[in-house]
Design a protein that fits this description.
Elements lengths: L5 E2 L1 E3 L2 E3 L6 E5 L6 E6 L3 H16 L7 H17 L1 H12 L3 H21 L14 E9 L2 E5 L5 H15 L2 E5 L6 H13 L6 E3 L4 H10 L5 E5 L2 H12 L4 E5 L4 E5 L5 H13 L9 E7 L3 H14 L18 H16 L3 E4 L18 E4 L6 H4 L6 E7 L2 H8 L4 E2 L1 E5 L3 H10 L4 E4 L14 E2 L2 E2 L5 H6 L1 E9 L11
Parallel strand pairs: 1-5, 7-8, 7-10, 8-9, 10-11, 12-13, 12-18, 13-16, 15-16, 18-19
Antiparallel strand pairs: 2-3, 4-5, 6-22, 11-21, 14-15, 17-20
The protein binds NADPH dihydro-nicotinamide-adenine-dinucleotide phosphate (NDP).
The site of NADPH dihydro-nicotinamide-adenine-dinucleotide phosphate has 27 residues, from helix 7 and helix 8.
């Protein structure tokens, strides 16, 4: 067993290293300090985890009454609440997000467990009216062994988005957290086991996506994949899943627009938009990274937006005054620089930011300044591609039709935000915008109970809502002869 600060896999309830003994190391993105090592799993560990999940699924877990699952998930929610501070500290160290915001995300994870605790007893089938010769109904059964593959931007919250409905539906899970943020996954699974989830029902394999992740996706005994991450990875997963017809839920990238109408409350639109792009340093799938402002407000909006962006305090994520922490890895700095360079080459003006921050202690971490770019053609990659960092492009429009065409002009369709006081006009925008989520006068996008997911290349399926349960269930149709007569359909 490797020594100090080692994060193991969890297989059949036991904390175990990778069978090869290989490890990966993690660092604090705000300070560059080492946070220890964790298991670098390969196909053999994935096999063991899938086997444990299958055997737990077909053992005691399959016979657990839905009401019992409800009680376990409520207990899990309560325990997460009691350990919220410890979870948040570990997550902030590992992913660099400001502690207060991580506590908010943990609160959302709690609400998610509570929501799906209630949903466990409501996975009803149907009894449709049929021809009198028949009696038919449907039953919902767990889809089976679920592979939950999660990213680094909201580790514990997104793990909860997958674990809570999967467990409510009665599935068993193998979780593969991001190689960059493995620290809180084990804490969460330990809590679930303490709450009463039997050993083997939730397993964790840490390691690289290219090794542990792809072994999981290709495993013939995995029935469903629930993935959050980049669109390119999502495409590869969908292809691999096709080989054994695994069910897939994909929550992928975005390039979400905000539309500011001339009747918007200007201050709300400015401050809400600053939050909706820069929260988590822009490392959010729903970041509103393109802002389209009516030409009559454009100059004032841009001026106020830049002023507000420059007020954001960047630095130590444990400091209460900090708004933005670091990017997740040093590689992201070079990526941000390449986006800024491409904007400049296309005639874009960088009104603030545009570079790495290195004053004092910031030089130890991956800090990048909030960046505002204007005067860019829509064809530029800063407008078309998911940047996943603190870079926003602001452009202007004249007519509603033009605003809608601009908003819809990318391959993604996750979230869109409207800033207007005219709710009738809002309705026509809502109908025309091709996106899974449209918010009006608020930067918020995700609340348990409301489906979260994208149109177009932003993904497949919805998380966080009652319809999510169906993604973890199979429908079995039962048809019975209702006539007390001999059966001789050929009349022979
Ligand atoms: P990925 O999509 O590569 O990673 C997400 C998860 O998938 C991680 O656990 C990763 O493991 C795993 N993974 C990677 N490749 C495979 C594979 N072939 N089979 C199975 N699992 C795999 O995201 P990145 O971290 O590389 O970020 C790339 C881009 O994706 C970002 O720049 C951003 O645009 C987007 N993204 C979107 C997110 C969202 O919320 N929708 C979240 C994260 C990223 P490992 O960590 O080891 O690579």
């Amino acid at each position: 067993m490797p020594s100090d600060n080692f994060t193991s896999n969890i297989i059949a309830g036991k904390h175990v290293p990778a069978q090869s003994g290989k490890t990966l190391s993690i660092t604090n993105p705000a300070t560059g300090e080492s946070l220890g090592t964790f298991a670098a799993s390969s196909a053999v560990d994935v096999n063991a985890a899938v086997k444990a999940a299958r055997s737990a699924l077909e053992g005691k877990w399959a016979r657990t009454a839905p009401g019992q699952r409800t009680r376990i998930l409520f207990k899990a929610a309560q325990l997460i609440g009691e350990r919220a501070k410890d979870l948040a500290v570990a997550e902030t160290k590992n992913n660099g997000k400001v502690l207060g915001y991580v506590l908010g995300e943990i609160n959302q994870a709690i609400e998610d467990f509570e929501f799906f605790a209630g949903a466990a007893t409501k996975a009803n089938g149907i009894v449709p009216p049929l021809h009198g010769a028949f009696f038919g109904y449907t039953v919902k059964e767990p889809v089976g062994v679920v592979a939950a593959i999660t990213p680094w931007n909201y580790p514990l919250m997104l793990e909860s988005w997958k674990l809570a409905p999967a467990l409510a539906a009665g599935c068993a899970v193998v979780l593969k957290p991001s190689e960059l943020t493995p620290m809180t996954a084990n804490m969460l699974v330990d809590i679930l086991q303490e709450a009463g989830i039997p050993e083997g029902v939730v397993n964790v394999v840490h390691g690289f996506g290219s090794e542990a992740g792809s072994a999981l996706v290709e495993h013939p005994d995995v029935n469903k994949i629930s993935f959050t991450g980049g669109t390119a990875t999502g495409r590869a997963i969908m292809k691999a899943a096709a080989a054994t017809m695994k069910r897939v839920t994909l929550e992928l990238g975005g390039k979400s627009p905000a539309i500011v109408c001339e009747d918007a409350i200007l201050n709300d639109a400015v401050l809400g938009s600053v939050f909706s792009i820069f929260y988590g340093v822009g490392q959010s799938c729903e970041a509103r990274s393109r802002i389209y402002v009516h030409e009559s407000l454009y100059d004032t909006f841009v001026e106020k937006f830049v002023e507000a962006a420059q007020k954001l305090k960047i630095g130590d994520p444990f400091d209460k005054a900090t708004h933005l922490g670091p990017l997740i890895s040093p590689e992201r700095i070079a990526l941000m620089e390449s986006f800024v360079e491409s904007a400049k080459q296309d005639g874009g003006k960088v009104l603030c930011g545009g570079a790495r921050l290195t004053e004092d202690d910031l030089s130890k971490g991956n800090f990048f300044a909030p960046t505002v770019i204007v005067d860019l053609p829509e064809s530029n990659r800063c407008v078309q591609e998911e940047i996943f960092g603190p870079i926003v492009v602001i452009s202007k429009w004249k007519t509603d039709a033009e605003a809608i065409a601009l908003a819809n002009g990318v391959i993604y369709g996750l979230a869109a935000t409207l800033w207007t006081q005219n709710m009738t006009r809002a309705q026509s925008f809502i109908r025309a915008i091709k996106s899974g989520i449209v918010t009006v006068n608020t930067p918020a996008t995700a609340l348990p109970g409301l489906p979260f997911g994208g149109f177009k290349q932003s993904g497949l399926g919805r998380e966080m809502a009652m319809e999510t349960m169906n993604a973890y269930l199979e429908t079995k149709t039962v048809l019975m002869n209702a006539l007390n007569k001999p059966v001789n359909p050929f009349g022979i």
